Amino acid sequence: MINQIIFATGNEGKMKEIRLILEDLGAEILSLKDAGIDIEIQEDGKTFEENAVIKAREVMRATGALVLADDSGLEIDYLNGEPGVYSARYLGEDTSYRIKNQNLIDRLEGVPDEQRTARFVCVIAAAFPDGRIITARGAIEGIIGYEERGEGGFGYDPIFWLPEYGCSTAELTMEKKNELSHRGKALREMKNELKKVLEA
Ligand code: ITT
Predict the structure, then answer these.
(1) Residues having CB within 6 Å of any atom of ligand 1
(2) Model's pTM, two decimal places?
(3) pLDDT per residue over 108-130, tens digit each?
(4) Which neighbouring-strand residues pair with 7?
């Protein structure tokens, strides 16, 4: 019986969404900080899947616990999928999202709505103490806005516009964002898989 899961992320925005989705799993969800883990992970994979597995596996090896990890990012079609797996590192890890978001808006100057298509992608990996790995993927389609909108969410949310809702993902409640988002979809799929394991 597993009653503790470590979620291998240092991103507080992700962690808040993750806690809300996994709260009914019946296991205690610890962030890296909660678990007192401070290891440098080399995210050198070429895909979201590879990076999610790298993060989950490294922390599982260091702790022996069941570990989940999220690798996610924003793919902008007009920019050939940029920033993609480099979303956190785009323009530098310590550069503010005000600057990153404005830079992407500027790179799409004059580009009409129908060519501003983009998606958030999320892959969740689970690394089990016995070495087994499972992954789940989710995506949400939108377009890149013309200005930042909203105070919620994190990262690129203020420029990710949902035409059918008439708002950005930073203007949704956390519950609504989780219902629609790449992370919500991937995590719910993962949760179903984990339930089978935890109930076994
Ligand atoms: P960890 O590796 O510690 O989990 P990170 O922020 O470095 O944190 P990633 O390498 O997976 O995580 O990069 C994901 C980036 O993609 C994230 O920093 C945001 O810039 C962007 N992103 C992912 N999901 C997002 C969301 O729901 N809303 C806004 N931006 C998001």
Answers:
(1) 9-11, 14, 43, 70-74, 87-88, 120, 153-157, 181, 183
(2) 0.96
(3) 999 999 999 999 999 999 999 99
(4) 31, 68
